[in-house]
User: What shape does this take?
Amino acid sequence: MNKDFLKPVLIIAVAAILTGVVAWVLPVWNNDVFTIRKMPWFSALLNSDKDTDPPAAQQKKIADTPSPLRPFLNKLGAMKPLTGKTAFIEETSGSAPRKLRIAYFSDSIIEGDLITAPLRSTLQDIYGGTGVGMMPITSIVSGFKQTIRHEFSRNWETISFMTRDKGDVSLGITGYTFIPRSYYMEQKKIETDSPDNIESPDSLFVSDSLATAPAKPVETRIAKFYVQDDPWVEYRAVDIAGGAAYFEGIKLYYSHATDSSIVRISYDSAPPVTRQLKAGNSLQALNISPGTPIKRIRLSFSNKDPLHLYGLSFDEDRGIYVDNFPIRGYSGMYFQRIHAEILRAFHQNLNYDLVVLQYGENVSNPKNTDYENYKRAMIRTIEYIQTAMPKVPILIVSAHDRSIKVGTKYQTSPDIPILVKTQSEFAKETGCAFWNLYEAMGGYNSMLGLVNQNPPLAGKDYTHFTRRGADYVAELLLKFLKGES
Assistant: This one.
């Protein structure tokens, strides 16, 4: 090697080492002219091969809080399993209930009966029960739901938590209200004129034969289309885990009927029968159970009668039922949209033993480090539910792991541990049970493992579970309820 090149390299290396030593041993000195700080170069070099976890991975784990579930678990423990079946949890003393019901509220995470179907199937296999519980009149994911076949006409007005300027209309327990209409609404792209489209005098003298007029702006509007047919809804039984091979017990829930309000009902292939609805603005439950088990039911209503329909319940007088209540994009806040008298009446009719609230992903924001406003709103929601449904235990299921892209890699969104901690806090402050799904699925970066499994347990959006993934989450929840997590 050329000595003329080697000599300056050695001098620079020795100078760097000496500088490092001096910087390491010199004391810190602050003054008005300049500041001397320690420079731990050597320790940094020694640790350079170790990964430094981001703050999201360093958060202290939040423990589950199962004790507020004790009233529900006592009922479940007292319930007698079917012949030949082993009780789900250790048996407890007390009168054995014939029926237990769970209301499971969430967002798109449970659309299509995800999580709730395997939960329902497991419990019904042990304790009995036939049916999917409450069903809405329409659904944007009806084709995705496998536990029941669900079809409907288009001429329904649908109001939900996500509908603006309809606060005067109470939602039902499903989070929706459906009103028969003689029309339906649809998004339509319309070309609109604007000053930019008006030809200028200069444009009249363009000689290029290939020149074309500028395209008109396109605007998306909601268009109204009128129809003559009455709105209808149809349900068909599906013999699948979490579903039912037939329908036996059926009730219709509605309000705001008049003296002329009716419903026409077709059971299987029999001619339709007409039933009168009870007038009044309060919640009504009409028993429309067939005399014998059926596989199909179709209901139709007058398109000129704007009564409020909330859905149908498919169940019997014994067994366990898990009602699937998803609202896409919903945060879980402002349950007051279900007016107190309606929520209270639904509870009196359906007699819930447990309410599950699984929210969080729709408020998650990687830049957010403070969820106090969300906490206050959720405390109001929980207290509102507790007032309308007194003594019913509430289980808060935390947000699950969600990944965002940082550079070229995906990793846990940094706000998720903060959000989970906030959820554990408002659960504690309101006396609710808390299940840390984020930790149960593996904590930091666990979503990556689910996405990369073969077959995958989560989608490429790094947020939503696949059907297999939802089954996995249901298994984790069942372990939590059994006290095995």
